[in-house]
Write a structure and sequence with these properties.
single chain; mainly beta; five-stranded mixed sheet
């Protein structure tokens, strides 16, 4: 008997964080990054938030199935730097877990995030396409930051489940934090 793929939720929790070392508490007065989640969902940040999670972008409530449509979220990242432009703005992945303990028992894939296709764009320009595992491997620390353009932008992050994901990927939970950085 040949079993088809189960159409179940393959949650993906991803939070947006601002990591700001050496900046004061005032957002505009002393510089820093402001995050505004503009996904149009309950719990979005409508005013710039700094040095903390703005809002969970992907909370696992969306349904992903192999070859299905991507779930897309967006957020605005803006440098507020005392009249000085940021010399570099970017993001990297922290606290990455491909096979989170919250995964359902049917999740048997060793690296479920290798089939989570991810796309990151800024103001319509694609900055990254690949899997979540690849993003964590290639941009998993501050020195390996994925560079953005300028010092602000509307970032869209799309996640989909690769068509090649089999039954072992169903019910899997992968987690990661996007850490936004800026330097002057």
């Amino acid at each position: 008997m040949k079993l088809g793929l189960l159409v179940k939720v393959a949650p993906f929790a991803l939070a947006a964080f601002a990591l700001l070392h050496g900046f004061g508490d005032g957002l505009a007065s002393e510089g820093g990054i402001g995050l505004t989640n503009v996904a149009g969902r309950a719990g979005d940040c409508v005013a710039p938030t700094r040095q903390a999670a703005c809002a969970t972008l992907f909370d696992g409530s969306g349904i992903l199935f192999p070859g299905g449509p991507a779930i897309e979220r967006s957020l605005t990242v803006t440098w507020h730097g005392n009249g000085h432009a940021a010399s570099a703005l970017g993001l990297y992945v922290a606290n990455f877990t491909s096979h989170d303990p919250r995964s359902q028992p049917g999740c048997t894939a060793a690296d479920p995030a290798d089939r989570l296709d991810l796309s990151v764009s800024q103001d319509g320009t694609v900055l990254y396409t690949g899997s979540l595992s690849e993003l964590a491997r290639d941009h998993g620390s501050a020195p390996d930051t994925l560079l953005a353009h300028g010092d602000s932008g509307l970032f869209k992050i799309a996640v989909s489940l690769d068509r090649a994901a089999g039954n072992g990927y169903m019910g899997c939970v992968s987690t990661a934090d996007l850490v936004w950085t800026a330097s002057q």
